[in-house]
Amino acid sequence: MELTDIKGVGPKMLLNLHELNIYTVDDLLTYYPYRYDLFEPSNLTDDYDHERIAINVLVETTATTAFIRKNFNKLQFRVNHNGRIMYAVIFNRAFLKPHIIIGKTITLIGKYDSKRNTFICDDIKLNPLTKKEIIPIYHIKKGIKNNDLRKIMESALVDSAKISNYLPDEFIMKYDFISKKQALRMIHMPHNYEEVKKAKLYLKYEELFLFLFKIAYMKDENENMFKEEKYFLQDQVDAFITSLPFSLTDSQSEALSLILNDIKSNKKMNRLVLGDVGSGKTIISFISMYANFLSGYQSVLMAPTEVLARQHFVSAINYFTDYHLTVDILVGSMTKKEKEKVKERLASGEIDILIGTHAILEENVLFYRLGLVITDEQHRFGVKQREILKSKGEVPDALYMSATPIPRTYALTLYGDLDVSFVRHKPRGRKEIITKIKKYSELKDVLMHVLEEIKNSHQVYVVASMIDDNEELDLKSVETLKEKFNLAYQGKIPIEILHGKLKQKEKDAIMQRFKNNETKILISTTVIEVGVDVKNATVMVIFDADHFGLATIHQLRGRVGRNNLDSYCYLISDKEIERLKVLEESNDGFYIAEKDLELRGEGDLFGTMQSGVKTFKIADLKTDLKIMMQAKQDSEEYLKSGAYKNNMNYTKIIRDLERLN
Ligand code: ADP
Ligand code: MG
To answer: What is the residue with the minimal CA distance to atom 26 of ligand 1?
Structure first.
C-alpha cells in the first residue's frame, strides 16, 4: 500500500507528508503523537491554577475586542463557572465575537490565572464538551494540521494498511502483548489513557528489540571479520608522538594503545572513540593513520563537511611534513580534472592518506591498499560507507570518532557492536568556557560584550533555535536575529547567517568567510559545523537556550574556547534557569550528558543537531531503561536461537545488515 492509496492523501497532502519525512505507510504509522490532550470538563478549583484544563462556563456578557497591534487582538468576556465569576480572554480570535452569546454554555480550554481572576484560553469550543476526549497531538509543519494527520492515520488504520511486525510471536505470548495492529490503533486513536499506555509499552519494546537485535547481529558478524595482521615499529610511532608540540593526555594514550593493538591484530578493528569536544580526537586519528602507513597501507579520513575536511587536511600536512608520507584531499567542490588526478594517484598507491568528505567513497574511488577508514563526527546507522567498501572487497580497519558524550552504560548498549573507548579528560591547562545565563531583559549587556570582543578583533557565534511553527514558543529565527543585530550595531558589523536549508556549497563558503575573519558574527541554527575550529571565536550567544538539551548546548559552546583567550557562552532565556545552571557549573560533557538525561529524558543523547534524526521514535532511554535491558536480553536470545532465519519480517533486515557489514 502506498501513501496515495490512503483516503485524504492527494498530491498536495503527499508533499506535506514528505515535509514531515513521511514517505511510506510505515513512516506514517510510526509518526507518533508527542503528547495527548485530555479534555474532560473539569470543575475549576484553586489547585488548577496555571494547569491546562477544560471548563464549561455560562457566558455572562458579550465580548469586547481590543486590537493591540497589527495581527494581534484580544477578545474578552465575563463567564460564570459553577458560580465562580471570572473573565475569559483569548488572543487572535476576534472572529469569535458574534458567537459569544449571553446565556450560552461553551467550553474554555486553557489556563486559569487566579491573580487576575482570568481564564486565558488557547481554544474555545462553542459546542461544549460533555465527556472525556483524548486527542493525539503531532508535531506538525505549515500546510498540515493536526486534524489532517489524525484523519489520515484513521483512514490508514481502518483501510488496514499492511503493517510490518518485528516482534516474534514467542515474545508477544511471553508478555501477553496486544497485537501490533491494536497497538497502532491505540496510539493514534485511543479511547482513554490506559490504551495509550498499553500501546506505548508494546511499541517501545518492539523498537528497542529490533534495534538491539541489529546490534547483536552486527556484533556477531564483526567478531568474525578477519584481516591480515599489520606490522609497524612502535619506536617509530613513539618518535612521531614525541615530536608533537604537546604530550598526549592519559585518556588519549589509553585510547591510542587500544587502537594500535587493533591495527596489529588479525581481527578487523571496529572501534568508536567517544570524547568530549576538544578532548583531542583528531591527533589520535593522525597517529593511527601513521601506524597504518608504517604497516604499508593507505588510510582515509572522512569528515561530514568540506570545511572540516579542509581543516584536517591542513593539520595533517603540518603534522606529517617530516615523515615522508603523502597526504591529499578529495572533496566535492574540486574540478573533475583535479579529482581524476587524485584518484589516479590513489590507485597507484602514491597517496598514503586521503582526507575528504563522506562523498569520496562514492566517487568511484579505487585504493591501492586501503587499511584504515576513519570517520569523524558521524554516527553509524545510515552510513553507506561500509556497503561501498564491502563491494570493493576491502576489509579495512574502521575507526569512528564522535563528540557526543553518552553516559557509559548507554554507550555500551547502543554501540554494543563496536569496541568503545572513552576520552574522558581534556588537555591540561585548557580554559573553561565562562558560561552565563542572561534574561532577555539583560540582552543589552550581552550585545555590549559582543561589540567589545569584536573590537578586540575576535569573532562571535550566535545560535537561534530552529525555525518552527509552534506559536506557543517565542522563537527567534535567524533572520529576525540578523535584523536585530544589524539594528543594534547600525549595520556596521559584517554578519552572515547559516542554516540547514542552504546548499552545502553555500554553507562551506559562509564558513570559509568566517574562518578568514571576514565575517565577525555568524548567526546560525544548530547546524554550525561540528568540529569546526575557528580559534579566533571567543563568544557564543545562544537564544532560547531553554529550547535545547544540555548536551547540545555543550557541543555548541565547544566551538569557542579553542585557544588561550578567555571565551564566553551566553545562554539567553527566561525559562528553565535551574536546568541551564548545570552548564554554568560544569564543562564536563559526560557529566552534562548524564544530568541532561536525568532532567529531560532521552534529551539529545545522540546530538540531534548532528544527525538531524532521532534514533528512536518512541522509546526514551531515560525512562525506558528497564524495557531496554529486557529487550536486549530477549533479542540476543532470539539471535542465538536462530529462529529469525525463518521469520519473513527479518529476512529483509538481515539482507540490509549483510550489505552493510
Ligand atoms: P576534538 O576532540 O573535539 O576533535 P580536536 O582534536 O580538534 O578536538 O582538538 C582540539 C585542540 O586541542 C586542537 O587544537 C589540538 O591541537 C589540541 N590538542 C589535542 N591534544 C592535545 C594535548 N594532549 N595537549 C594539548 N593540546 C592538545
Ligand atoms: Mg573533532
So the answer is: 427
